[in-house]
Each structure stands twice: as C-alpha cells, then as structure tokens.
Write a structure and sequence with these properties.
The protein is mainly α and about 120 residues long. The chain is built from 5 helices and no strands.
Length: about 120
C-alpha cells in the first residue's frame, strides 16, 4: 500500500489535471474534498484496529464505495446549502461530489498499481 503522502500526491495530481482541463483554479474547499477523498478509503484501518478483524481493502476499496460516497456528499451538501446564507451558497455541489469520487478513485488506482487485488 502506498503511504498516506503518496495518496495525497495522487489526489493533488488529479486536482491539477482537473484545473488544467477546466482552465480554472479550484477553491480551497474543492482541494480539501479531493484530498480527503484520496485518503478516506484507508479509514477501514480504524475498524480493523478496534474490532480486531480483517476489514482492510474490502468495501472501502471498491468503485461502489466511491460512487456511494460521492453521491452522499452531493446530497448532504445540497440539503445543507438550502439553509445556508454564507459562502456555502457559492459551492457547486455536483463538482464537490465528483471531486470526492475522483479522490477515492485515485486512491484505488494507486493501490491497484502497487498492490494487486483491489475489489
């Protein structure tokens, strides 16, 4: 498994590619979302350490998880945005969910390159 730093670098490269394709810089919240997405699949280590069972590289390392989490983030921020009066009104929730999914997918791709066997 690549280390945390390598997953963050993978997310950063994906973010820079998106900036280049859009010809527009990503704001801080979009960068935060893509970088958190790049490391969130390894949160299953916490379950493994607390429940003492083999859960690493199962559901959190799947495309279904990436799509589910992107859709969940999109729905949550769309709901919260309705009741917001501040800067959250300016956030593109579809882009937010897409970037989170892309961040997770970069994690999966790096794991597939360095360790075979991602579900």
């Amino acid at each position: 498994m690549p280390f945390l730093f390598e997953h963050l670098i993978g997310g950063w490269i994906a973010g820079k590619a998106i900036e280049f394709a859009r010809k527009k810089r990503l704001s801080h919240i979009y960068w935060f979302v893509i970088l958190v997405g790049a490391i969130i699949p390894d949160l299953d280590y916490l379950m493994e350490w607390t429940w003492f069972n083999e859960t690493h590289r199962t559901f959190t390392h799947s495309i279904l998880f990436a799509l589910f989490m992107g859709a969940l983030l999109y729905l949550v921020f769309s709901f919260v945005r309705q009741f917001s009066n501040g800067d959250l009104k300016k956030v593109d929730t579809l882009l937010l969910g897409s970037l989170f999914t892309i961040g997770i997918l970069t994690h999966l791709i790096l794991d597939m390159i360095f360790i075979p066997g991602v579900p």
